[in-house]
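name: query_chain
kind: protein
chains: 1
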Amino acid sequence: MTKLGTYLSSIRRKHNLSLRELAKQSELCDVPISHSTLWAIEKGKNSRGNVPHPNPNQLKTISTIYHVNYEKLMNLAGYTPSVDKLTVEPTSDGATISATTKWETSHEPLDVYGKITAGIPTFADEHIIGQTIIPDDLIRRYGRDNLFALQVDGDSMSKVIAPGFIAVFAKDCEVENGDICAVLVDGENATLKRFKETSRAVILEPESFNPIYKPLIFPKNIDQDFRILGKYVFATSLLK
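structure:
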C-alpha cells in the first residue's frame, strides 16, 4: 500500500463503508469516481500492477466523500503546493498576506535550513529545521543536488515572499539582473534580495512594505564582501 492508500483504508474501515457505497456517494460530486478506481488507489496498484496516480479532481471527490482534508490527500498523493498570486496588503500595524495555491507533481523531499553560518557552502545538518517537498520539474531543470531550501525570516522581501514561507534556491546557476537571490554578506549574514548590477556597482534591493530596509550597494572599485548562494526558483508554505 501507499501512504495515501493506507490512510484512506483506515478512514473507510473506521466508518464501516464499502468501496461500492463510496463510489455511489461520489455520483453526487462534480467528478464521480468508480469502485475500481477507489480500489486501485486504496491498494496502491491498478489492474496492470502499476501504482495509480490520482489527479487533483479525483482527490477532491475523495476528500468530499471521505470527509477528509483535501490538502492532506494531495500531499499523501505526491503533490506539493506552490505559492501562486501572492498578495501582501500593508496595514497600520504590518501587512495582510493572502495567496492562492498551485499544486505540482512532486515526490522528492528537500531539507530546509533555518540559519546559514559563515561560509559553509554545503550547509550543516545542525541547522536543518524540517523538510519540504519540491516539484519534479525543479529536479529535472536544476538537478536534485543543486537545490537547497530556506525558511524566510524577516520581511525585507515581503512584497514577493511572505515571512515564514519556504524558499527554494538553485546553486551554480547564472544570476541575471532582476533575479531574487540568497546572498551571504560579510561572510556571516544570509539575506534575501533582488540582484541588480550596473557598470559601477552591484545592488541588492529589498522589496518590502517596511520602509526600514534599504538597498545594499557594493561599488566595483572596492572588494565586494558578498557571495551569491543561489537563485530563488520556488516558494511554498509546506514544512514537514
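note: Confidence is low (pLDDT under 50) at residues 117-122.
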